[in-house]
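Bug #77: duplicate submission created two jobs. Keeping one. Sequence:
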Amino acid sequence: MGQEEFLYKHNSIAITGVLFLLIILFNEIGFRMGRFVQANTDDEVKSLTGSIQGSILGLLALLLGFTFSMSMQRFDQRSHALIDEANAIGTALLRVQLLPMQYQGDAEKLIKQYIDLRVEVTHIDLTKHEARKAYNNKVSALQNKLWALSILAANEDPRAVTTGAFLNALTEVIDSQGKRNAILQMHVPEVVLILLFIVFIASGGILGYSSGLSGKRIVAPAILVSFLIALIVFIIIDLDRPKRGLIQVNKQILLELQEGSF
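Kept job's structure:
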């Protein structure tokens, strides 16, 4: 991954757990600070603190919606890219029958090998650079073989409705593979996630501080809110982790293509 960032290399569960603990910690720190200044704080300051708390929670909701939308959009793009590639490969496989007879067997064999490779990539982590490089070399070599074969077929039968149709389908296969690879590299910018984490932690701190000013500790609701915040963050990060998270794009259409039931 050309622009791999710090958080992307770490497990989403670990990131979520650390965030949850930090929210609880800052909530406790905020509570103790609130209790410390409680005696010297009048009602006007307490009211102002409540207004600041509301503003931070509003900012939190805005950032949360924005970030969740970004990660969900990336997930949808990966789903559509997989469907488009499977459709392109299926079309190319059907159009093998338009090639001159002597090329059909080799073309079909190469495309089926290509399908196996595209299924194989679903198990290769994007952070495994050497494995990705070796895999990309194999895909490129197979694409070159298919292209060379299609050129030979075109020299023998240059008609657009036969070999030309297969060439168009093969071009779409190569383009869809490149597009899917590009989409896999896209994720929510780390600076956005860090900003989201800072606002989450600040929210925990201001909630604790407000509780400290009132002199009443609300342990269970604070832990519940912190847990829900951490859970939402986990979903956002997991959606943004192709091939690593628990939420994965459905690969059934590609598997059906491999099994010949597409």
